[in-house]
Amino acid sequence: MTPPLPIGDSPRIAFLASAADEAQAARAQLLARHEDHPPEQADVLVALGGDGFMLQTLHRHGGLGKPVYGMKLGTIGFLMNHLAFDGLLERIHAAEPAVLRPLEMLVQTESGTTVGSLAYNEVSLLRQTRQAAHVSIELNGQVRLDELICDGVLVATPAGSTAYNFSAHGPILPLGTNVVALTPIAAFRPRRWRGAVLKADTEIRFRVLDPYKRPVSATADSHEVRDVVEVMIRESHDRTVTLLFDPEHNLEERMLAEQFTSG
């Protein structure tokens, strides 16, 4: 069990909410009880919404290095705690931290543009048309798969391994294992290839074969780049974020529960 973070008795909190009416109403109730601070001046960020809004918060404010405590108001809340208006300061003090390290995506497009982005869940490549994508896979500069014919392929972090990766029949990865999941999406050939679990510091490079006839897009969480010819992915060396979870329902417990549910 990871010990709680040393947060002061009266932490400065920035209350952030999705645009949904329910989230905005919850923020108003919390502001009636607690003072609000700008994210740059806060000790803790409280995110109100679903997992999508949590990812937006991490992308927008992750560089500040502030811990984030989420409360679920969206349709999906794997990265969130349950919503309650009472005892917020006590919950924050008792919360257990989960330190996440995102993936860096660097994309080359057909037009010669270079685009970079971060992914806290996954980087996915997907075919843009009815025709299957043809992709080669290199690991640390060595070609490991000459040609993967598929609808797509993704690389997931441990925190993101329960999301799109799990739906694509990829493995759930425990936190702190320093690995990532490489998972094909509807692979046609090699038909029996089910992907791989790789060390987190592996540099993964996808090259799109015949990109003009068989165009492919690349997406880091929700940031999509179309008409890509090459995508490099590696774990970030200088960026981490800390999520805070109630002890009775921390992220490790949620990942275990996900593997033993039949729903």
From TrEMBL:
The active site is at D51. Its main location: cytoplasm. Its cofactor is a divalent metal cation. It is an enzyme of class 2 (transferase). It catalyses: NAD(+) + ATP = ADP + NADP(+) + H(+). NAD(+) binds at D51, G52, N121, E122, D151, A159, T162, A163, Y164, N165, F166, S167, A186. This is NAD kinase. It comes from Novilysobacter erysipheiresistens. The gene is nadK.
